[in-house]
TrEMBL record:
<dbReference type="InterPro" id="IPR051629">
    <property type="entry name" value="Sulfite_efflux_TDT"/>
</dbReference>
<feature type="transmembrane region" description="Helical">
    <location>
        <begin position="176"/>
        <end position="202"/>
    </location>
</feature>
<comment type="similarity">
    <text>Belongs to the tellurite-resistance/dicarboxylate transporter (TDT) family.</text>
</comment>
<feature type="transmembrane region" description="Helical">
    <location>
        <begin position="214"/>
        <end position="235"/>
    </location>
</feature>
<feature type="transmembrane region" description="Helical">
    <location>
        <begin position="247"/>
        <end position="265"/>
    </location>
</feature>
<feature type="transmembrane region" description="Helical">
    <location>
        <begin position="45"/>
        <end position="66"/>
    </location>
</feature>
<feature type="transmembrane region" description="Helical">
    <location>
        <begin position="20"/>
        <end position="39"/>
    </location>
</feature>
<protein>
    <submittedName>
        <fullName>Tellurite resistance protein TehA</fullName>
    </submittedName>
</protein>
<feature type="transmembrane region" description="Helical">
    <location>
        <begin position="107"/>
        <end position="132"/>
    </location>
</feature>
<keyword id="KW-0813">Transport</keyword>
<feature type="transmembrane region" description="Helical">
    <location>
        <begin position="144"/>
        <end position="164"/>
    </location>
</feature>
<dbReference type="InterPro" id="IPR038665">
    <property type="entry name" value="Voltage-dep_anion_channel_sf"/>
</dbReference>
<keyword id="KW-0472">Membrane</keyword>
<dbReference type="InterPro" id="IPR004695">
    <property type="entry name" value="SLAC1/Mae1/Ssu1/TehA"/>
</dbReference>
<keyword id="KW-1133">Transmembrane helix</keyword>
<feature type="transmembrane region" description="Helical">
    <location>
        <begin position="340"/>
        <end position="361"/>
    </location>
</feature>
<keyword id="KW-0812">Transmembrane</keyword>
Length: 368
């Protein structure tokens, strides 16, 4: 019993902030399937996500209460600091689900406020870390997870926009404030992604160096696309906004093109990694058939870690954003893509969830 208590205490102490990516991923896949008119799947994922979010919030609160010094230490280490932004995005995703499935705008508004305050705190620590480090060192630390800065910023705008629409608040200043968050996210993407491109394409990159968070290179423009499409459809219908609407639509289409262009490379790198890393000799047939099975199955070939959820969110977001862009542009052909890609997103989500459960069970057994 004492050993179990020590194990739980250590689990809280070392809680990985990236686990909130599970909430991000489950939420956006749920929202995507609601848009695809599969309400049963969407609502089931919504209920699961409420459980995930509640459990993770309790663990995070316990860590803040019992191991505050460890949390502060994490926030002062740049690669760990931006992982806390998954809490911001996860909270906004839950808020969006509450608006869509329950019309619980009051609770969603509270979550939006919590997310905004958390975003300000995280950005403060990230900027402090950057200021205290050398420019060259910061450049070396930039990776896929860095793009959580963009995703979290745009998620503030996305939930804010949904709340404005759900509560029928049509104040121009409120729409403009949320639009600024969205536009800032796009500008940040244009600033950060060249550093990542330099890392991926102009430096030696072994299969083992590829990480699931690099999928956010696609996930960031995908959430920009989703939010931009929502803006185009819900901006105030007044002449003063026509120019902004046109600019927003063009940026949104550009973001979707950028996100789409990342997909072949990311799939190739995933396959390359999953068929070679920690695989002695030739990869077994089941791995060659569908490499992502390693996220859930196999003994020596099991290939899961908490950051694996960083792959699921972009895949689900691409489904949701393409559906939204199809509505905003009136393009029926665009709506065909998510009808296939959405099921791929659900499959990757399922395998990653099995991998998570397997990891938790292994941790539980080791505590006995």
């Amino acid at each position: 019993m004492e050993r179990l208590g020590t194990t739980i205490s250590n689990g809280i102490k070392d809680f990985h902030p990236a686990y909130f990516a599970m909430v991000m991923a489950t939420g956006i896949v749920s929202i995507a399937f609601e848009a695809m008119a599969f309400s049963c799947i969407a609502k089931t994922l919504f209920l699961l996500n409420l459980v995930f979010y509640s459990i993770l919030c309790v663990i995070l609160a316990a860590r803040l209460l019992l191991f505050r010094s460890n949390v502060m230490a994490d926030l002062k280490i740049l690669p760990r600091a931006w992982l806390f932004l998954t809490f911001v995005v996860g909270t906004n995703t839950i808020g969006a689900q509450l608006v869509i499935f329950q019309h619980a705008t009051t609770l969603a508004s509270l979550l939006w406020l919590i997310a905004l305050i958390s975003w300000i705190i995280c950005i403060y620590f990230i900027l402090s870390d950057v200021i205290l480090m050398r420019k060259k060192t910061v450049r070396k630390m930039v990776n896929g997870a860095t793009l959580l800065i963009i995703v979290s910023t745009v998620s503030i705008a996305l939930l804010g926009l949904r709340l404005l629409d759900a509560t029928a608040i049509h104040a121009a200043y409120a729409y403009f404030a949320t639009w600024i968050f969205w536009a800032s996210g796009f500008a940040l993407y244009l600033f950060i992604v060249p550093l990542i491109i330099d890392r991926l394409f102009f430096k030696p990159l072994e299969p083992g160096d590829w990480e699931a968070p690099y999928w956010i290179c696609m996930g960031a423009p995908a959430i920009i696309t989703l939010t931009g499409s929502e803006f185009v459809m819900h901006m105030p219908a007044v002449p003063e906004w026509e120019d902004i609407r046109e600019i927003t639509l063009r940026i949104t289409i550009l973001a979707w093109v950028i996100g789409t262009s990342w997909i072949p490379y990311q799939i190739f790198m995933d396959i390359r990694q999953l068929t070679t890393v920690n695989v002695a000799g030739r990869a077994p047939l089941w791995i060659k058939t569908f490499p992502w099975l390693r996220l859930a199955f196999g003994r020596q070939h099991y290939f899961y870690d908490p950051s694996s959820w960083s792959r699921v969110f972009p895949v689900g977001m691409y489904t949701a954003c393409t559906l939204s862009l199809a509505k905003a542009t009136g393009s029926a052909s665009l709506g065909i893509i998510p009808q296939y890609w959405g099921w791929f997103a659900l499959l990757i989500w399922s395998l990653t969830l099995i991998g998570t459960m397997r990891s938790v069970i292994s941790w539980r057994l080791s505590s006995r």
